[in-house]
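Incident review: delayed structure delivery

Summary: a single-chain prediction request sat in the queue longer than the usual turnaround. Root cause was a stuck worker, restarted by the on-call engineer. No data loss occurred. The affected request and its eventual output are reproduced below so the record is complete for anyone auditing the incident later.

Affected input:
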Amino acid sequence: MPSVFLQGRPVDSCPPLAPEARRGTVRRITEVGEEVLHKPCRDVTEFGPDLAALIDDMFLTMYIADGAGLAANQVGVGLRLFVYDCPDDDGVRHVGHVVNPVLEALDAGDRRLVDAGEGCLSVPGAVMDVPRPDRAVVRGVDKDGEPLVIEGTGYFARCLAHETDHVGGQVYLDRLSRRDRKEALRQVADRRDEVFARRAANIQALSARSDAEAR
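Output delivered after worker restart:
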């Protein structure tokens, strides 16, 4: 079994940060309650350098925030697009982006629901159990408009479902009971400052590394 899949295809290796991140700029991550997170995103219809630059920025922003996936509306852009760098339960790493993603409806026999802890970069500091299928298939296209099919199991399936929810205007809190949602928001209030301090430290470390490489 290959240890890395890039855009759904096996590859020999991939650097710790996807190459796109080296070209990117860190963007502000939107937080739950902001309108752009709570309404369906628009299909991407223009493919070109602007889209490629957005994907670069999203990769770097995701890494700075220690995330496994990031949707465009999480950086304030209401387009159907997400990036990911996420392991599955077998330790296989999956890296890539999906434009105009659609989550396939799978037969009950092809999947089982698993309750497991889930977080979100737009709900900083909260982790709650959310039932998700243990298998996911997402169809879409890449930044050049070429068709893509990405399949995932375990934690990576959770990531694909979570990010596809985002482009539909849903955050994982929408899948919780009122009581659990209240608990998640309490966790945010307790941990938000700590999360933002860690992100700021990551930006400083990246800047120092870039300065050292430039010398």
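Verification: The helical segments are 19-23, 49-64, 154-167, 178-214.
Action items: add queue-age alerting; document worker restart procedure.
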